[in-house]
Design brief:
Layout: H1 2-35, H2 46-82, H3 85-91, H4 96-138, H5 142-145, E1 148-157, E2 169-178, E3 183-193, E4 198-210, E5 213-224, E6 231-243, H6 248-255, H7 263-275, H8 281-292, H9 295-304, H10 317-345, H11 349-374
Antiparallel strand pairs: 1-2, 2-3, 3-4, 4-5, 5-6
Helix pairs in contact: 1-2, 2-4, 2-9, 2-10, 4-9, 6-7, 7-8, 8-11, 9-11, 10-11
């Protein structure tokens, strides 16, 4: 059994690696040609464009890995079938269940790689690439280059004994720039009572997120009285500790594109939105897509296994690989379509995210059962 496992794993991993590298080389070339149009802006040069495109590759690898697994596994299985090696293995006692288990274990390994790249490697390299490109193009300091512009946040504070609040408050916060480590600038905070009456407006040039709140600097505070529109106080302070439940992780998640957020960041952001009675349907669908996407590698190897039971005369390897490419494209299209339909129709988020994988898994098992029984 160890020899069979080595044979399967060596062939499949080699084929998947080759397909992945081929896809990444293609996407690198396309991105590099597109980036050449930005060369010359500020200190941005050709070598910087090449480095930026390299830093984008982990994100592409995460998105393309299930398709690469499908195509590579189909190629490996079709080659074993064409050379009659798989027929010999079946004659020697390799049953359908054991063959399925061998590939399923390999699919779980690919899923682990996909999760690691998608949750840890790709977000980091995407952020570093954007920081480098923005810094060189705009002649900014490297830390300034990671900032995003104009994000709105919402926070709800409940009055408790000793916190200085007379009643519950709802805060709308506009942050002009978000930097690394919870560094903020151009902050505007609008405090409202639960009945919608504005209580105060706080403007700060800079802010730092710390435990228990935000440390504001160069602050101007405008407060209104009980009567609507009545100005009660207007003062300036060098520093102010503003209590808030908004942590650095939540703020960073709010400015990051959903596709680049890790599963944990999405969960934290969804929890914050839910606590503030904001819509979370879109974020929940993205969370479940992110959480279930690594399992797509398992579905892909199961979908590829039936190709090993097709006789070589049923079609050449190139035809089977082409069929794998079509299946991979259809999976991506259905996966994106299901997410959009789920958002439009209000489907349960995990169902909208899992539907394509479940459909292709059932399809692969049906084809596998039919081929084992009749071929």
């Amino acid at each position: 059994m160890r020899t069979v496992r080595r044979l399967f794993y060596a062939d499949v991993i080699g084929a998947v690696s080759f397909v992945t590298v081929a896809f990444l080389a293609l996407f690198f070339f396309i991105d590099f040609v597109a980036e050449l149009g930005q060369v010359g802006r500020g200190a941005y040069r050709v070598q910087h464009a090449a480095l930026f495109c390299l830093l984008e590759l982990p994100g592409y690898a995460y998105e393309l890995l299930p398709i690469a697994v499908l195509i590579g596994t189909i190629y490996a299985m079709a080659r074993l079938a064409q050379s009659s090696e798989f027929t010999i293995l079946r004659t020697a006692g390799l049953g359908p269940g054991r063959a399925l288990w061998l590939l399923a274990t390999l699919g779980l390994l690919f899923g682990l790689v996909s999760f690691t790249v998608g949750d840890y490697v790709a977000p980091y390299t995407d952020a570093r690439g954007d920081a480098m490109r923005n810094a060189l193009r705009n002649n900014q300091a490297p830390l300034d280059a990671t900032r995003r512009v104009s994000v709105w946040l919402k926070d709800r504070r409940v009055a408790t004994a000793g916190d200085g609040l007379a009643s519950d408050r709802i805060d709308s916060i506009h942050v002009g720039h978000v930097g690394p480590g919870g560094q903020l600038s151009d902050v505007r905070i609008f405090e409202f009572a639960t009945d919608g009456r504005q209580l105060a407006r706080i403007a700060a040039e800079r802010a730092q997120i710390i435990d228990g709140g935000w440390q504001l600097e160069s602050v101007q505070i405008t407060r209104w009285g009980a009567a609507e529109g009545q100005l009660a106080a207007d003062e300036r302070r060098e520093a102010l500790l503003w209590p808030s439940t908004l942590t650095a992780a939540v703020v960073s998640a709010a400015v990051a594109p959903l596709r680049t957020m890790s599963t944990l960041d999405l969960y934290r952001y969804i929890s914050h939105l839910a606590e503030n009675d904001q819509s979370v349907q879109r974020q929940q669908i993205q969370f479940w897509k992110k959480a279930l996407y690594p399992l797509a590698c398992l579905v892909m190897v199961c979908l590829a296994l039936p190709f090993a039971y097709l006789h070589a005369r049923s079609g050449s390897i190139s035809v089977k690989v082409f069929a794998g490419i079509l299946l991979g494209i259809s999976f991506v299209l259905l996966n994106n379509l299901s997410a959009h339909l789920g958002l439009l129709r209000g489907w349960t988020p995990w169902i909208a995210a899992a539907a394509p994988s479940v459909f292709y898994l059932l399809l692969s098992m049906a084809a596998f059962s039919w081929l084992v029984r009749y071929r």
